[in-house]
Amino acid sequence: MKAIIPLAGKGTRLRPHTHHTPKPLLKVAGKPVLSYIFDDLVALGVSEMVLIVGHLREEMEGWVRREYPDIRADYVLQEVQDGTAGAVALAEPFVDDEILIVFADAVLEVDYSLVRTLDPTYAGVIWAKEVEDYQRFGVIVTNDDGTMSKIVEKPKEPISKLANIGLYYIRDHALLYEGIHHTLNAPPGPSGEFYLTDAFQYMVDHRAKILTAPVEGWWDAGKPETLLETNAHLLATTRGGVAPGATVGRAEIVEPVRIEEGAVVRGGRIGPNVTLEHGARVEGCEIRDAVIGHDAVLENARIHDSLVGGHAMVKNVAGTMRITDHSVVEGDRG
Q: Are strands 138-142 and 148-153 parallel, antiparallel or unpaired?
């Protein structure tokens, strides 16, 4: 089984950070979003991936080679951002068996082992999560047996609250690509893009059975506020703590926090929901709900709901900030 992972997006909602870091490589709780996905796939036994790259492709490819040298990766350049169907279409020359398709916008808590025990009558699986703000998503309408009946993009009427989260297993890859070709030969959607979900609808309309499966956890990391919420969740569950090699002196620590090796905290109050990456130095600061990058220096700052890049310097300021690597922000607070 191979995995197809589209990674070509520009991550405009996470600028300025995505001007120089691919969106899937932004960190939550000290680890890139893409690492959570890769680690789950490797644990499942997936060792071959087709990675659809575009924006900052050199950084993405270099990271994969450094961090996951045992993965056999094929890279395909998506030159035109024409939607999810267009992205997955580019992987077709590399697909000859069952596949997982994973969009790297979130940290997922999913039982992937379902694909190993799935009844052979099913052509695939779409994972979904019930949400209240269903108008923001493509939603899945199911039959009585839990199979997909149809997908509706951003419905105005409450026909379903089962949100499509961007994780799919496809056994009948031939029918999938037949559906993708059909989609690409039809007029695009309202946004001018071609949706992969239309290919799934094609499969169902041609009598394929696609099972909908629940998601244990789905933590969006596609915009600053949800990235910070995901960071908070991970700190509170699996990724919190103060590393043995961190230095904390005369400071109030409000859990959950993650203070990594080599980080230094002197005075002030840190937390809740704060990640200080390795080498960060924080003196006399009050910080909550924030991710502070590696080797950043913060002095006499009172910040919240913030993303601070690596090697940044922040002094004498208060409020919310989103600043990228090597930035300097200095105010007049005494």
A: antiparallel
3-class DSSP string for the chain: CEEEEECCCCCHHHCCHHHCCCHHHCEECCEEHHHHHHHHHHHHCCCEEEEEECCCHHHHHHHHHHHCCCCEEEEEECCCCCCHHHHHHCCHHHCCCCEEEECCCEEEECCCCHHHHCCCCCCEEEEEEECCCHHHCEEEEECCCCEEEEEEECCCCCCCCEEEEEEEEECCHHHHHHHHHHHHCCCCCCCCCCCHHHHHHHHHHCCCCEEEEECCEEEECCCHHHHHHHHHHHHHHHHCEECCCCEEECCEECCCEEECCCCEEECCEECCCEEECCCCEEECCEEEEEEECCCCEEECCEEEEEEECCCCEEECCEECCEECCCCEEECCCC
- Structure-block tokens of residue 317: 């300021």
Token pair 């056999």 is at which residue?
Answer: 72
CATH architecture label of 240-330: 3 Solenoid (2.160)
Note the pTM of the prediction, 2 decimals: 0.91
Tell how strand 99-102 and strand 2-6 pair up.
parallel
- Name which residue leads in pLDDT, 130 or 55: 55
240-269: b or e for each residue (b if 16 or more CB lie within 10 Å)?
bebeeebebeebebeebbbbbebbbbebbb
| pLDDT given at position 333 | 64
Give the pLDDT confidence of 109-148 residue by residue, as tens digits: 898 989 989 999 999 999 998 877 766 777 888 898 989 9
Residue 156's pLDDT band (boundaries 50, 70, 90)? confident
**What are the sequence ranges of the domains in the chain?**
2-220, 240-330
The superfamily CATH assigns to domain 2-220 is Spore Coat Polysaccharide Biosynthesis Protein SpsA; Chain A (3.90.550.10)
pLDDT, position 334: 55
Residues 249 and 322: their CA atoms lie apart, in Å, by 27
